[in-house]
Design goal:
- By secondary structure, this protein is an alpha+beta fold.
- Helices cover about 30% and strands about 25% of the residues.
- A hairpin with a 7-residue loop joins strand 8 and strand 9.
- The longest helix is centred in the middle third of the chain and has 18 residues.
Length: about 230
């Protein structure tokens, strides 16, 4: 039997919207979809959906990300609550916003076609519905704050990567350039990378050594108060 204590209160729809970031080796990108329902049908939008009566908001975000990307165990973090009264022209909708990080190559082209999805560089974003641009801008700021002390950027890289790829990622996140020597010195001094006896020869004949992320070292440094950059 449903509780009737709150029967005289206003009913408000609760939604989740997900900003999905990916990195193509050069640019940080956001994944947008063509909206499939009114209002604003056919316009660019974040991935999202409504929270079901029997699920938490975290579970709803996980469900939306899984259905839309076909991926599980995605790095996901709750960002903010958007609740302006007139934010959605169809009705009173409060949205809990999340940002997620995935590897671009992990997102299948079949699902991109199915959901009419497309990756956009952050400096070439199209007009998006409602207040979704505010959501994206806020998530970029949060990502920049987060990567200072948490190496979540590794979620955007292949399992094996070069120092050049790592630096390119962080330059994309901050939309700036770093001195090669200083960046390499700082990163290697943390002991967070494991150098492999393998090289990526895609960029030159000599090739660049590949590295892996050392999760054990990160957990230890995190306890001590790690400042990644």
């Amino acid at each position: 039997m449903k509780n009737t204590v709150y029967k005289n209160t206003d009913k408000i729809l609760l939604a989740v919207d997900c900003i999905i970031f990916g990195f193509d080796g050069k640019d940080l990108k956001a994944l947008l979809v063509k909206r499939a329902i009114e209002p604003e049908i056919g316009k660019w939008s974040l991935m999202g959906g409504f929270v079901k009566e029997n699920e938490s908001v975290d579970a709803a975000a996980t469900r939306v990300l899984s259905l839309q990307t076909g991926l599980s165990e995605i790095y996901m973090e709750q960002l903010y609550c958007f609740g302006d009264v007139e934010r959605d022209t169809a009705g009173r909708v409060v949205s809990i916003v999340y940002f997620a990080l995935i590897k671009i190559d992990d997102y299948s082209k079949d699902l991109m076609k199915e959901h009419h999805a497309k990756w956009f560089s952050l400096d070439m974003l199209p007009t998006v519905v409602f207040d979704h641009r505010k959501m994206i801008d806020l998530s970029i700021l949060r990502l920049q704050e987060k990567v200072v002390s948490h190496p979540i950027g590794f979620e955007l890289l292949p399992a094996k990567f070069t120092l050049q790829q790592l630096q390119a990622l962080y330059e994309a996140v901050y939309n700036t350039t770093f001195d090669n020597r200083n960046f390499t010195k700082k990163i290697l001094s943390l002991g967070l990378l494991v150098k492999l006896n393998e090289k990526d020869k895609g960029s030159s004949k000599k090739g660049s050594f590949l590295y892996e992320f050392n999760h054990d070292q990160y957990r230890q440094l995190n306890k001590e108060g790690l400042r990644f950059l």
